[in-house]
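User: Can you predict the 3D structure for this chain?
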Amino acid sequence: QPSIIQTQVLIITSSRELAYQIYILCVKLFKNSPISVAFHRGTTAGKQGIKSVGEKYMTTNMKHFGREHIVVSTPQRLLALLHEETYVMPPNKKIKINTAFIGNIVIDECDNVLSTDSKHSDMANHMHEILSLIPNARQSLYSATMSENTKLHCNNLDAMYFKFVANETLGGTVEHYWVSLEDEVDKFNCLTHILGKINTAGSVFVFANSILAAEEICRCLEDSHYSCALIHGSLPQTIRDAAMEDFRNGKIRILVSTDLGARGIDVTTVDLVFNFDLPSTGTQYMHRCGRAGRFGKRGISISFVLHFGSSKPPDIIRIEKENNIRIGELPHPETLNNETR
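Assistant: Here is the predicted structure, written as C-alpha cells:
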C-alpha cells in the first residue's frame, strides 16, 4: 500500500551482487510510481555503532529513509537492521526496520539461502531467524533448482510449485562440452587455446572451485594479455563492484569467479562459460552454465576434466544424469564460432 510509508516487502538473496541487481531492476519497475525501494549491503553483523568498509545504502526516496516500501538485502545485513538500530552509510545514520507492516518476504535463490550445508549454514540460520521475527508474512521462494531442505521448507508452507517446460530450461539454450586433460597445467593452455579459436564469443565466465585457483587463473590470463577481472567472497566489496561493472559494460571480456558469480547474475553478453574446475554437484553445474544463453540466446559451456583414456569421464556422466542433458566431447573449437550467436 503506497500510502503507508512503512516497509512492507523484503526481498532477500544470497549475494550482494545479486541483491544490487534486483534493486536496479526494482528501480526501473517502480520508476513512475509512489513505491520506494531501498538497498542495504554491509559487512557488519549489526552491532550498534559499528562502521565498516563496504557498507552501502541506496534508496529511491530519501524522504522515506528507513521506511521504504520495499527493502532488498542479504540475510545477515537484513537481520542486523531488524534487530536494533544499525549504522548505515551513506547517510551516516542509524535505522531499525519496523516489522509491524511487513506482509511479504521474497527469497531469491532460495535453495542457496536456506541451504544447511557447511558452506551456507550461517546464511540459513540468519534467514530462519528473520522468518521467526515476522512469522505472519507471506513467503515467496524462487530458484532454478530446489534442494531437499528447501523442498521441506516449502512443504511446511503448503507451497505451490511452478516448473518451466523443458525447452525453457538450461538444456534448451546452452551447448555442453567436455575436454579431457592430463594435469592442471594443461587446463590453462587449453583455456587460452580455445579463447583464441572461438573468436565470435562475447563475454566469458571462467569458474573455479577455490579462491586460490581463481586468483591464479586471473593472474595467468593477465600475464597472457587477456582482458579479465576477478570476483570472490574474500575480495573487498569495492573491487567486486568494479569488476562486475567493467564486465557488464564490456570494459573487460573475461570474468573469473568462484561460485559467487554462479547464482542469478544476468549479463546479456555472456556467450561462453568455462568450468575450469568441474563443480561437485549437478545443481551447481546448472547454475554456472546458466550464465550463458540468457534471454533466448545460444551459449556454450566447456568443462575441463582430469581424466585418462578415451571414454567419457564418470563425473561428466553423473552431471548428465543429474540434469538430464547431453555433454559432448569438444570438437575443434573453430567449429563452434557460429553457435555462439
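Confidence is low (pLDDT under 50) at residues 44-50, 165-172. The two ends are 44 Å apart (CA to CA).
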